[in-house]
Amino acid sequence: MKVVALSCTQKRLPSLTDALLEAAIEGLQREAGEVEIQRIRLIDHRIEMCEGEDTCLDPEVARCTLDDDFEKVVQLADGAQGMLLAMPVYAGNVPAVLKIFQERLKSFMNAEQRPFGELLVGTIVHSRTMLTEPALASLFPWYLRLKNKNVASACFSQNGHQDLMLTAAPDLCTAVGRQLGMTLTGDRPSLPMIQPAARPRCGDPVSSAP
User: Fold this and answer.
1) DSSP code of residue 206
2) What tens digit of pLDDT does each residue of 71-99 get?
3) Which terminus in the chain has less CB density within 10 A, N or C?
């Protein structure tokens, strides 16, 4: 089993995004056991902006003609069944490095199987103050086009916390990874049924207290 761990930070050095993603990977491995993790930091690759010429949509071309690391990144995800995606929010939306990558994937629009598509996904979004939920929502049209299924999400705002890693955020990221692992392996333990106590209904005689 192969899972892509896609870090969409725009920091060159290890970042909070990477740390939260590693917590999710730990949860995934706890549930899925032996799994191949393909880590991809988009910022570490040279991916140019789409020039909008749509040459890639010509059946005789059928590929992006820009000369950079895009095809290398696409090949890294080959054969994956799942993806953990972690991203920061810089201006109320997905970071630029991810938006560029999303637009470049348009070159596979007419392909029978699109790269980074038909995956089970766990998503992590974090920001300094707010707007994590709108940024998360902006991912779903992309997921739908790729026929991905998001099985778990977690959003975190740093607010007054100096270090988000000292909060419950890493534990919740681990839970996102565990949920993805259970879904990938089909291991969904049934929860015990809890029968609620009988409740009086309207019109029932009221029992007198002793």
Assistant:
1) P
2) 999 999 999 999 999 999 988 899 999 99
3) C
First and final CA of the chain: distance in angstroms?
64
Long-range pairs for 22-25 at CB < 8 Å and ≥24 separation? Answer: 23/169, 23/170, 23/171, 23/173, 23/174, 23/177, 24/84, 24/86, 24/122, 24/124, 24/173, 24/174, 24/176, 24/177, 24/180, 25/84, 25/177
Predicted TM-score (pTM) of the model is 0.86
Backbone angles phi, psi at 87, to 5 degrees: -145, 150
Amino acid at 135: A
The one-character DSSP state at 166 is G
Closest C-alpha to 155, from 141, 183, 175: 175
